Amino acid sequence: MTALISLDISDGLAHLTFARPDRLNAFDFEMGQQYRDACVTATSSPDVRAILITAQGPAFCAGGDVLAMAGAGVSGAEVTAGAHVIHEGMAALVESGVPVVLAARGAVAGGGIGLMLAADYVIAGEDLRVAGKYADVGLTPDLGVSTLLTRAVGERRALTLLLTSRELDAATALEWGAVAEVATDPDARAKDIARTWATGAARALGQAKRLVRASPPRGWSESLADEARTIGEAFEGEEARRRISAFAAASASRGGAR
């Protein structure tokens, strides 16, 4: 099996790396399963005091690999099931008592936004670009985006990002509250923070994070279940099929670039 998510645990630090740079770290089903397994392993290990998430290549995550899914002829039910698998990994991070820091550079689109915001502290690269992109392929938010984005930036700004073509650069993402810092080398800065946590009061920090994350009124699992069902239904709709086909044609005309 190709390692699309790598996990290294040492000195109290679990380091997860997205390793599908040729597809801008867009998630397919296999990557989703590896992500779930890595998150569960990291959060359940008694030796882990902090978690660091980074990504290979120029982009953190372009969301779900809709071209691969459409090309494989998967069903809406399979899309829903795949979303649930990734949700299990995200829930492990969000609900754990382990602090999570993440470095994001380049493109963060669609479900990549949720994967980014599942971390407790986000360091953005100066080249960060955040965009919803769901409407471009006729799909609906998944991977916690409807919940996590709204909590991070507020309802009006979340709707702006999801209902228009608005794209956030690093400075605007910081101003809106989608990220905590902007750094020239986000990976190095995130690693420094993770090591500080791992050698410091990690248990207290983790419990503080858990309490804050548990505070909103709508249940996290309820939101995830709603998103997974909705995107599966959208995937089987005519609008999504038409837009994904157009997206595939445009991608092919660019020589496969995404």
UniProtKB/TrEMBL annotation:
Q: Which SUPFAM superfamilies match?
A: ClpP/crotonase
Which Pfam families does this chain map to?
A: ECH_1
Q: Where along the sequence do coiled-coil regions lie?
A: none
**InterPro entries linked to this entry:** ClpP/crotonase-like_dom_sf, Enoyl-CoA_hydra/iso
Supply the name of the protein. Enoyl-CoA hydratase-related protein
Please tell me the species this chain comes from. Demequina muriae
